[in-house]
Each structure stands twice: as C-alpha cells, then as structure tokens.
## 1
Amino acid sequence: MKTIDAQDMHYKDLNEIIKELVKSGEDIINLKNVNGQRYIGDSLNGKTKINIEGTPGNDLAAFMDGLTIEVFGNGQDAIGNTMNDGNIIVHGHVGDVVGYGMRGGTMYIKNDAGYRVGIHMKQYKDKIPALVIGGTPGDFFGEYMAGGCMIVLNLKNNKDIVGDYCGTGMHGGVIFLRGDVEDYKLGKEVIKEDATDDDLKVISKYVKNFSSYFDYDFDKIMNHKFIKLHPAGNRPYGKLYA
C-alpha cells in the first residue's frame, strides 16, 4: 500500500508517480488532498485499487483497462471516457459527459450526474459496460447510445427521473429507470415498456453492488417499478443518409 499527498502537486507529476506504482504492481494507492488533478488512471491496466480523497479533475479513468478507482467525494467531467475495463465508484455527484464512448467495465455513482451521460456508449462481444446512478442525470442521457446498460435509481424520488431528450439517437443497449418517465422527455428513437423478470435479474446484479458500495437497503431499492428504454431500430437516421 502506498499513500500520496497530492496537495499542490501538478497533475503531470502525480500521474507519473501513479503510473510507476501501477507498473511495479502496487496493490493499493491512496491519494489524499486531490483537488482537480486530471487524467488520473488514464490508459492504465492491471488490478491496482486507487482510493481518492478529494475531487479529481476531468477525464478520470479515460481509456482505463482493469483498475478499480474509488472516489470519496465528487467527480468532474468525462469520467470513464472510452474506458475499456475496470470499476469506478464515486461517493458523490459527477459532471457532464460521464461514460462517453465507454466500452467495458462498470461505474457506480451515488448521487446525481450531469448532461450527456453515456453518450456513444458501446459494447463488443463479451464486453458490456454498465453505469448505475443513484440520483438522476441531466439532459441527453444515453444520447446516441450504441450498447451497454445504464440504470437510474432516483433514490431521492425527484419529479423528473431524467432530463430532456433522453435516448435521442439511441440505437443499441438498454436503459432502466426506477420509476416512470413522461414520453415528451424521450427521444423519438426510444421504446418504453415495463421491465421484465429477466430485466429485473440484470438490474438486481448491479443494484446489489450499488447497495454494498454505498450502504443502501437492496430490497427497498428493488421494491419499486422499473421501466425499460430500448431503441426502436439500429439505424435511427438511416433515411437521412441513404
């Protein structure tokens, strides 16, 4: 185990130290006093666990391939950008464009998320990325989503479970919402229906992890109606370009 005090440290210096520790096989890295240093965990692979106290900057875990990063605070924009594998756990809120192009791994957000979460999320063969939000996301949630699974739990029971234009251009993957959503908030490319028993099995797997990470009652979360959003077709704008 290695502990690093990131107070007033330049992000390049911090990331160089992290890179060398991961390369050497360090099992746990504790980062203290993180305050906006960006690119933490980018392009790294392995089984190292990075614990972050504070608020990491943009592009946390971009292109990451296998690490676990746990943030004891809030996160900023573009977390998990094109992430290939690994696990991200955030004990707070996150910013915009989280999970952009995410193609593997899992991400658990305790509270709310910003705009354009999961845009261009994708999957390939056995890689199915998953993103669970305990609160609610902003506009354009799942925009152009091409694969993977996103779950919104809305544990504070906000009136609006998602922002406007949810699933606009969606042509793959699935979104599960704990509660209903008004049709006007959905992109025209999305079909809304009740979650099936098989869907609930998928949801349960991720909610168990969420409940464990953030100390929630699993049964209480699951004792609620879930709806499923999925694309009407795989070429939402085919007529525009054909």
## 2
Amino acid sequence: GLAKMMMTDVTAEILETHLAGLKPTYRDALLREIRAVFGYALKRKWCVENPVKNMDFESPPVGERQVFSVKECTQLLNACVTKHPDLLAGIAIGLFAGVRVFEVMRLTWEDVALKEKMLDLPAEITKRKRKRSIPIEPALLAWLRKAIKLRSEKTGPILPFSSYNDFRNRIRVLAKDAGVKWHQNAMRHSYASYWLEQNNDLNKLALYLGHVGGLDVLQRFYHRSVRTKEAKAFWALRPRRV
C-alpha cells in the first residue's frame, strides 16, 4: 500500500489506482488531504513534486451538476459505435434514461422491453431497492437498436463488467477516443437536464430518476440548466445511417 512507499515513488497514476471506485466527494476529500501532505513534504524537501497537481477533482461546485453538451454526447456515442460497441447500450441508457452507472451494470437485456418501450429496473438492482420503470424515448430506442445490430445481442448483461473499476478503466479509454472529458454522474445529470427542459414535469422526472428528495432539489439543479434548442438537439440524436 501507499504507507510502505517512499514519497518520491508516489505518482498520480498510483494515486488514481488507490482512489478508483470511491464516491467523488470522498475521493476529492482524500485528494485534498494528500495534496496537503505532499505540500508539507515539498517545503521540507522530502519529495520533488506533488503528484496531486496532475490529477483532476471530480466533484462539481456545490449547487452545480456537470452536463455533457450535445457535441460531447455525439462524440461519445459515435466512439462507442466505431471502437467500443459493447459499451453503446450502456452509455445510451445512461444518457437517454438517466440510469445510475451501477444500476446499468446490473441491468440485463431481459429488463429492456423494446416492444413496450420501457426500461424495467428490478428492485434488487436499484439504489433505493424499489422497482422503477423509465420510458424508452425514441432517441434511446434508436441507439439500442444500433447496439443490437452491432453486437447481435439481446440477452445477458447490458455492460460486460463485473466491477466498477473495470467500467472506469474502459470509460477512460472511451472518453479519450471520443475526445471528451469524463465527469462522474454526468450522463444522469444530462438526461435530467435535457428531459426537464423538454417536458417541464418535475414529478415525472423524480419518478424516472428514482429521486426521493424534494422536488425543489430537482428544480434547483436542473431547471434551465440547458437551453430549449440544446434539448431539442439532444433528443434528436440518432445513429448515422450506413
């Protein structure tokens, strides 16, 4: 572990490995403490560099939520199609249905009712341990059909990962290939922002997100966080015809 390493041997890559899978707020809190320790060591010339300076904090400022732009969504989806087809269905569900990453990792194709155009999340895979259903919007339906066409797959897990670390590592590669800076929970925040701007219904959004807090929270975070023109462009995203 880190406790047995010389400070001069600790790199940003090593820290990322040790912090992988932690909640953004907890990860960032640890990063701040580590940064302070290395800052203290630098002043006393116990090391030559603070590795935290080469790392990004994941949590957005209080009261803000990171949202992928329409361009970034396009780049991510297209990168899935060309280089990471096994990620396409999961990324599409995250963007166009707002399902949490760990819920998508537990989701199977058997939970995707294409004919009824509904995602049915069993209680055992959701954060609140309550079953919830989310309409499959036309955009999501198009991308799911594209994923099925690319993979010839309609059974088994939506994502091919057994751990969050595996997902995280692949997402880093995907984001790099797409030319997009990845933000924790940004897919879910994007869905909420674009959906609310198009539909203006906090009660339904809370139901689809599985949100149990007050509606004022959703109002504060997502109301007018994107423009109407952007929302229309987001919901109009479709796979390229070949």
## 3
Amino acid sequence: KNHQCLQQTARALNSIARPPRDLAARFGGEEFIVLLPDTSADGAMEIARAGAQAIRDLRIPHAGSSVGDEVTASLGVGTTQVKPDAQAIAFLESVDHALYAAKAAGRNCIEVVAAASPR
C-alpha cells in the first residue's frame, strides 16, 4: 500500500508541475522535491499549496496516523539563485530543515526557508 501511496503522490505532484521547466521527483523515502526554475517566492508558495491540496484530494487512507485519517503533505519551500557549487547542496539542506520544521509543527503545513539568498 505504501508503494501505491507514493505512486499516487508522485502523480499528484506531477499534475501541478509545469513541464518542461519544472521537475517533480522522489527525493528519498517518502520525500519528494519539486524544482521550479524561474519561479518567484509567491509562485513557489502557490504551487506548494496546489501540491498539498492535490495530495489531500486523493483522500488516501492513513491507518495508524496520529495526525489524521488521510495522507497529507508537509512541505518545505525556499527560493534562491544558486551557482554550480556547494551552495546548491546547502540550499537543499535548508529546505529539508524547513520540511522537518513543518513535520514538527504538526504536519499538513508549509514552512518557508527563512533566508535563502546566494552567498
């Protein structure tokens, strides 16, 4: 069932991505990443909200969850202009921290990277 949940989640995220520019992909475990080149912070939040809603709309049962009866999404969002160096890795780590902050805040919410600017 977890495999089916991941497949449905992937389809939902792909439905809100704008090909060929955007990329939605599984990032590991139960985590996904949506890369949105040339997208403003407001645009990224709009897409994050749409992605979270698309996942809620699936109404996938979430047995044993302490949060709710259906699968929801916790999201970390950040925007930056990265150079082809270690800065991209540091940026991804900061967005990952935002994701875990969303999970710690009770799940089913969006946390934004506080300062995501180039060094």
